[in-house]
Amino acid sequence: MNQVELMRKKILDAVMEFARASAEKSPAFYPGQSHVPVSGKMIDGNDLQNLVDACLDGWLTTGRFAHEFESRFAAFMGQG
After folding, report:
1. What are the pLDDT digits (tens) for 5-41?
2. Cβ neighbour number for residue 15 with a 10 Å cutoff
3. Residues near 51 by Cβ (< 8 Å), separated by ≥ 6?
4. What is the three-class DSSP state of 72?
5. Is the separation of the CB atoms in 44 and 74 below 8 Å?
6. How far apart are CA 34 and CA 76, in angstroms?
7. How many domains does the chain have?
8. Lower CB density within 10 Å: C or N end of the chain?
9. Is residue 20 a contact partner of residue 45, using CB atoms and an 8 Å limit?
């Protein structure tokens, strides 16, 4: 692993640690019982990691995540 990859890993690990610490402050979620605000955020540590990972790539509107999604979605729809 080169220095840039190591730095990225440290950043993403820190993001997950942040997400876990933030989640500890949130009330537990029970499907079918808990209120889900229509304007609130419902993201987890993996979502935050992907967001930061995309930002570190420098692609905020497209890039490897968009390409992966498009390819997998096309395959799912039988067009890939």
Report:
1. 999 999 999 999 999 998 777 778 899 999 877 876 7
2. 19
3. 43
4. helix
5. no
6. 31
7. 1
8. N
9. yes
